Amino acid sequence: MTEFIFCPRAGLITFETKQEDDDNDDRELQGQQKAQLTYRPYYSLRPIEESLEKALNDLRRLPKLAGGTALVSFLLLLLTGALQAWLLALVIPALILIFGTFNAYPRISYFGKLRDMARKALPREPDPQSVDNTAINWWSLLAAGFDSVPYRDTLKDHSWRVAGKPWRVLRKGSLRIPVWRRRGEAENQAKIRGQHYARMAAYCRLIEKAEGGSSPYGIILFGNSYDGIAIANNQGSRSAFHKGLREARQVIKGKQRWERDPSPPSTGTICSSCPLGKPFTYRPGESDNRPGRLNTSPHLAFGDDGRAYHSECGDRFQWIPPHQKAFAKRLIKY
After folding, report:
1. Of 183, 173, 146, whose CA–CA distance to 40 is shortest?
2. Same domain, 163 and 78
3. Following DSSP, what letter does each residue of 223-251 receive, concatenated?
4. Proportion of the chain in helix, strand, coil states, percent, rounded to 5
5. Amino acid 26: pLDDT
6. I want to staple 277 with a disulfide (CB 3.0 to 4.6 A). Which of 163, 170, 313, 322 is the partner?
């Protein structure tokens, strides 16, 4: 539903490919971390402490490993008298200590800081009566007594014909707080738009129907961080949810009954960073058979580099979406 609010064309593609915005999918976060420290974020203290202990044990084993190597080299020297044994006895243990330390220390530093952050967090939670958005920290919420529960099964509200699941639910007393992540966006870059209010209101309704508790707000975490924002489940959020649901059904009805596709967005800024409009190189055979794609003919455009490009949205609606990468490559219709 929220894709329809963002863009009717994006919503229709998501509907036709039967994709779900699954917050348990960490592929995008993992891709970012490969370019950084390659450490996956943790959202509970126990795995952090286990990872820290493993790194410390790796460091503690280094002297034994280096000493064992030196002993073997010394015995080899006694048996053979070879000069190379002296080199083995000195160089290899030194290399083990140096490279082992360089491998263990970044992990010890990272997980140590993360453990301290979690342990020293001050208990703080949003006011359930507030109608305004509130900045939050994940560890402060856990320190305030919330239990974090991952959600596995899709929740359904048959009366509204709505289904979905948040990434996690925070429980404290009668409070049931849905949590999801804005993957790929840092706090200083993230903008809360209408589709986010609608999505949060939908999660709150689903959680209240499923668990019978109260969901006065929901939480969005930003990117690869522990900071986020609590969005009030107020009348504005619920109105965005109801409006988005009606519009989504109108688009689907128009397509199913009259084969009518939605018009392009009125402003190109919506398309500028949309992953469905991002052009990628066309490779015969491979590009046509990517999993999760619609069975549509590639709509090719050629860039200054002479390569052919196409996109998910471009193929589906036979056009060139005004994505920032399309402008950068100066794509033209073939």
Report:
1. 183
2. no
3. TTSSEEEEEE--HHHHHHHHHHHHHHHHH
4. 50, 15, 35
5. 40
6. 313
Vertex 36 angle, CA 31 and 40, to 5°: 60
- In terms of residue numbers, what domain contains 315? 268-333
Which pLDDT score, from 0 to 100, does residue 31 have? 36
How many domains, in total, are found in the chain? 3
Nearest Cα to Cα of residue 174 among 207, 131, 135: 207
Residues 138 and 219 in one domain: yes
Residues 6+ apart with CB under 8 A from 56: 104, 108
Which residue, of 202, 220, 249, is where some domain finishes? 249
pLDDT of 186: 53
Query: Is residue 319 located within the same domain as residue 238?
Result: no
Whether 11 maps to a domain, the answer reads no
Q: Distance between CA 93 and CA 71 in Å, rounded?
A: 10
295 in the same domain as 181: no
Segments of the chain with pLDDT less than 70: 1, 19-41, 70, 72-74, 76-89, 183-190, 268, 286-295, 332-334
pLDDT score at 308: 92
CA–CA dist 259, 253 (Å, integer): 9
Confidence at residue 16, expressed as pLDDT on a 0 to 100 scale? 84
Report the predicted TM-score, pTM, of the whole model to 2 decimal places: 0.74
CATH number at residue 135: 3.40.1350
258 inside domain: no
In a domain, 36, yes or no: no
| pLDDT of res. 77 | 65
**Spatial separation of the C-alpha atoms in residues 280 and 13, rounded to whole Å:** 17
* CA-based nearest residue to 4, from 202, 297, 148: 202
Same domain, 179 and 212: yes
Phi-psi category of 160—alpha, beta or left, where left has phi over 0 and alpha has psi -120 to 50?
alpha
Q: CA 183, CA 275: separation in Å to the nearest integer? A: 13
Residues 317/298, Cβ–Cβ less than 8 Å: no
What amino acid occupies position 247? E
